[in-house]
Write a structure and sequence with these properties.
Largest sheet: 8 strands, mixed
Shape: globular
Structural class: alpha/beta
Helix content: 40-55%
Radius of gyration: 19 Å
Strand content: 5-15%
Bound molecules: nicotinamide-adenine-dinucleotide
Number of strands: 8
CATH architecture: 3-Layer(aba) Sandwich
Order of helices and strands: EHEHEHEHEHEHHEE
């Protein structure tokens, strides 16, 4: 069993993609901690996979710390952190702007990942290394006119993962992201019919979970695995931005040339 005796903490594990990852990892031998604000569904998923449920609002850093502590207490450590909890935004920046909901969505979709990494790191390092995989989105790789704030926080997760990847790889912690297009979960329930009418193919949860497994098996770090209908998932190849030049046109020694176009 590939993940025998590995311990996985999954935020947003009560439904959708997180529940799919919980089922798959448990089926491959992992011990799973489902962390969510939805206690009813979270307990059901945890019972189904013989795991543990913890109530966890990822926008509160203490909750993530408590969830990691619960994983360590119940199963002896932590090997995989799946930072997946997320919500849609549903407003623009005009008359429809909602400042309170803005803070809420940033608190979950971005702060929740930051707090999750911070909470998981000591336990992962105590095991000599491990994995962190965040659920970003295609909305973090391309423009998302229908939900600009969601695009902004998912792009921030992409930037965070790319920056952390090389740094934490040195400690044996592989940080990667999975970036799904539209997938068949509660988050798209309000506009699924419109997507289908427009001819947009919708991913299954299993399609997204497959990409999770690819990211966990890859040995890479700082990678953002896109998940698009009808094509295999791969790490997105980011175009390199132009690097700095001195006044006389030479490369700047402090700058890493592999990072520039
Ligand atoms: N389904 C898609 O089309 C799609 C596409 C790209 C990215 N994503 C991302 O995938 C992730 C999972 O979403 P999903 O599609 O499975 O939707 P979902 O609504 O089925 O699942 C999201 C889960 O997050 C939980 N959650 C919400 N707020 C929380 C909080 N404050 N603390 C802890 N848990 C919380 C919910 O209770 C739910 O169980 C999200 O980050 C979402 O942005 C989804």
């Amino acid at each position: 069993m590939e993940f025998q005796d590995k311990v996985a903490w999954i935020t947003g594990g009560a439904n959708g993609i997180g529940a799919g990852v919980a089922r798959r990892l448990a089926g491959l031998g992992a011990k799973v901690v489902v962390a969510d604000v939805d206690a009813e569904r979270g307990k059901a998923v945890a019972d189904e996979v013989d795991g543990l449920f913890v109530t966890c609002d990822v926008s509160d850093p203490r909750h993530s710390e408590q969830a990691v502590a619960a994983a360590v207490e119940a199963f002896g450590g932590l090997d995989i952190a799946v930072l997946n909890a997320g919500i849609a935004t549903g407003f623009g920046l005009g008359d429809d702007f909602d400042a309170e909901r803005y803070r809420r969505v940033m608190g979950i979709n971005l702060d929740g990942v930051v707090y999750g990494v911070h909470a998981a790191l000591p336990a992962l390092k105590a095991r000599g290394g491990g994995h962190i995989v965040a659920t970003a989105s295609m909305a973090g790789l391309m423009a998302m006119p229908m939900d600009p704030v969601y695009g902004a926080n998912k792009a921030a997760v992409v930037g965070l993962v790319r920056a952390l990847g090389p740094t934490l790889a040195a400690d044996g912690v592989a940080v990667n992201a999975v970036c799904p297009a539209f997938a068949d979960t509660n988050i798209i329930a309000g506009f699924k019919t419109a997507l289908e009418s427009a001819g947009m193919p919708i991913l299954t949860v299993d399609d997204v979970v497959d990409a999770y497994l690819s990211a966990l098996r890859s040995g890479g770090a700082g990678q953002c695995w896109y998940v698009q209908a009808g094509r295999p998932s791969e790490p997105f190849k980011f175009p390199n931005p132009p690097g700095p030049r001195t006044a006389s046109g030479e490369r700047v020694a402090l700058h890493d040339p592999s990072q520039e176009g």
